[in-house]
Amino acid sequence: MKIAIIGAGTMGNGIAQVCAMAGHQVVMRDIEQKFVDSGLARIEKSLSKFAEKGKITDAEMKDAVSRIQGTLDLSDCKNADFVIEAVIENMDLKKDVFRELDALMHKDIILATNTSSLSVTELAAVTSRPDKVIGMHFMNPVPLMKLVEIIRALTTSDETTQKIVELTTQLGKIPVEARDYPGFISNRILCPMINEAIFCLYEGIGTEEAIDTVMKLGMNHPMGPLALADLIGLDVVLAVMNVLYTGFKDSKYRPCPLLVKMVEAGHLGRKTGKGFYEY
Fold first, then answer.
1. What is the pLDDT of residue 189?
2. Which element (helix H / strand E) includes 112?
3. How far apart are CA 135 and CA 119, in angstroms?
4. Are residues 67 and 205 in the same domain?
5. What's the pTM?
6. Looking at the structure, do residues 236 and 133 belong to the same domain, yes or no?
7. Catalytic residues
8. Which of 119, 223, 239, 240 has the most CB atoms at less than 10 Å from its CB?
9. pLDDT by residue (tens digit) across 116-170?
């Protein structure tokens, strides 16, 4: 089977790696060569770590790499059997991508989105195949995390859902279905928790280390919420909170002012070297 991945960033290259490791041919498309090259390099680095730890053989690593094609040309995706979109969390951009894919791909091809919070129903509505659009929300880091949230748009068919559940299982992941409301299940719970942890810091209730230690030792979380925010990216956390705030019109989802200021300052976490911690 051939799977097209639209976007070679953190999520896109992770999804491409998982698909290749499961034996599929993969074409990973982005808009600039530097993004494609960076995505391919991250895949090779990740696979090397798997090989070093004995989780895969060197031959399996080489086979997986050989199954991935990077490209700038969307038409290279035309003969794919599935498409998974993984561009940045911007509704207008995603709509443009889905319009292009809808015009390019055969009418029977399912178009999945890796969105973590945006309306799948709204994306489906810009296509001529709303019954074949579905959310397929992988967790970060994709090669390590087992969960994939399956989000049905209001128009998604049972057949489409079943095919995506089967694909998810074949990739070695565990599918869990969620309804198409802001944040779905994962981010509707996770991001407000992170936001509340930021409020604790903002209001001087505790230091970064104190807040994270309470959640790790008191609630048995593997990582504290502020360290997790740095891993996810503070811009991503803010974007999700804004989706929740706008979608529900409920003040409990208002982003913490400290989160807003940090994003304005460009302190986005690990990817910029500075967030709540320095890297």
1. 97
2. strand 110-113
3. 9
4. no
5. 0.91
6. no
7. 116, 137, 149, 187
8. 240
9. 999 999 999 999 999 999 999 999 899 999 999 999 999 999 999 999 999 999 9
